[in-house]
Design a protein that fits this description.
The chain is mostly helical and 440 residues long. The protein has helices at residues 5-13, 23-26, 38-51, 56-74, 76-81, 94-104, 114-120, 125-136, 139-142, 147-160, 170-184, 187-190, 195-207, 217-222, 226-230, 236-252, 260-275, 282-295, 303-318, 326-349, 365-388, 392-415, 420-423. The structure holds zinc ion. Its cofactor is a divalent metal cation.
Length: 440
């Protein structure tokens, strides 16, 4: 049964620069934009070409939305003055403040509830978390960072995530950053890391999906989005996340006091980390990692080896949802599938071929999750476990992973009772947020 999903996964993430391109819709999507808003582009296409007078109201709404977005993007300096820092918590009850601060005192625990933290910080989880972690590691002092510039940079990053995306939004970035922090604390790694490694690891985690449009690379390619041609159909989204981050770094002037070669090196290494999250390169990284572990030749005194492990750590953090406690894991699964289904609905509406895993009628959440766990998450975390051994955190993550996979098996069974083979191995859903091990 799982084998059915392997080709689906491969084709979901692989390039689609072939004859299936729907050129009838493509031209309109060439409109040059700074950001990555394919949904808006498609709505313009629909209203211009097919809908006529009936949807004049919709068109007006789109125009208003567009001008608001243009305003937002054109007024970076102004936005930089808006407080995104924990200072903005003054709008909240002292109670909320206290609870958020209490949560930060346990930010290194694996059952950290990022959804709750985001609510307690009034949607500022990413900025609040990053400021806290920069303080924990004394990075502001070490790199002589200007707090105003740091605040402006983090505010830009958080704001450039699309809050309307069910999955690829600022809460996902905060979640990945929190996971990254847990991995940076692994004893095998922590003692070797330099302040620059830690700075890069946290920055890459926070910005790794910035301005994600909520659709995947094959979608951008087949609709001839300008980002696809800009990056020649290769690591399109990851390149955009990286270049957007570099743009915001320069605009905020966060690194402008550093020697040119150092800030250039930081930009390049951030790119290398963010580009490693391209799921198309999963096997390449997994094979190299496995080889290093087999040969026992990783030398963390070497900067290049530490960088490789940071790439792997970021990849793990990016796909660690199935390793969280069931209650958190389930929410992420529902969110990512909702995003897939939205892309599928969009493709259906505009007569594009529906991408693998994006058809709500055919692709159930349990089936998508079991495929994702089996082919992406499990192989990676088994090697991470080997690398970090002995690690209580890695063992906890694998335990959750196996439980969650079994839970999805039970749920899939409930959806398709005729699937007797998978039902025979199914277990009852179990676990909750409070049940997770408290690793600090
Ligand atoms: Zn991500």
């Amino acid at each position: 049964m799982f084998n059915v999903y392997l080709p689906l996964f491969l084709s979901f993430f692989s390039h689609l620069a072939d004859g299936r391109l729907n050129t009838g819709h493509a031209g309109v999507l060439l409109a040059e934009r700074r950001g990555s808003y394919p949904l808006i582009d498609l709505r313009i296409l629909k209203s211009n070409a097919q809908q006529g007078e009936v949807e004049t109201g919709t068109r007006r709404k789109v125009k208003r939305l567009l001008s608001f977005q243009r305003y937002c993007h054109a007024s970076r300096l102004l936005r930089g003055l808006v407080s995104h820092s924990p200072g903005s918590l003054h709008l909240l009850d002292d109670d909320y403040l206290g609870q958020a601060a209490h949560m930060l005192s346990k930010v290194g625990t694996w059952n950290f509830d990022i959804f709750l933290f985001d609510r307690l910080t009034n949607g500022n989880s990413l900025v609040t978390l990053m400021c806290h972690l920069f303080n924990v590691y004394d990075l502001i002092h070490h790199f002589q960072l200007d707090m105003v510039k740091l605040n402006r940079f983090l505010g830009m990053v958080q704001e450039d995530y699309h809050s309307q995306n069910p999955y690829h939004n600022a809460v996902h970035a905060a979640d990945v950053t929190q996971a990254m922090y847990c991995y940076l604390k692994e004893p095998k790694l922590a003692e070797h890391l330099s302040p620059l490694d830690i700075f890069l690891g946290l920055m890459a985690a926070a910005a790794h999906d910035v301005d994600h449009p909520g659709v995947n690379q094959p979608f951008l390619i087949k609709t001839r989005h300008h980002l696809a041609s800009l990056y020649q159909n290769t690591s399109v989204l990851e390149s955009h996340h990286w270049r957007s981050t570099v743009g915001m770094l320069r605009e905020s002037g966060l690194l402008s006091h550093l020697p040119a070669d150092m800030s250039q090196d930081i930009e390049q290494r951030l790119g290398s980390l963010i580009l490693a999250t391209d799921i198309n390169r999963q096997n390449e990284f997994l094979m190299t990692f496995r080889e290093h572990l087999d040969n026992q030749d990783l030398d963390l005194q070497l900067s290049s080896h530490r960088h490789f492990i940071l790439q792997i750590a970021l990849k793990c953090a990016d796909v660690c949802n199935p390793c969280r406690v069931w209650e958190l894991s389930r929410q992420w699964s529902e969110r990512v599938c909702e995003e897939f289904y939205r892309q599928g609905d969009l493709e259906r509406r505009f007569d594009l071929e529906i991408s693998p895993l994006c058809n709500q009628q055919a692709d159930s959440i349990p089936a998508i999750q079991i495929g994702f766990i089996s082919y992406i998450v499990e192989p990676l975390f088994e090697e991470w476990h080997r690398f970090t051994e002995p690690s209580l955190l890695s063992q906890t993550m694998l335990d959750h992973l196996h439980k969650n996979k079994a839970n999805w098996g039970s749920l899939r069974c409930a959806h398709t009772p005729s699937d007797t083979q998978s039902c025979s191995q199914a277990e009852e859903p179990e676990g909750g947020v409070g049940e997770g091990a408290d690793i600090s």
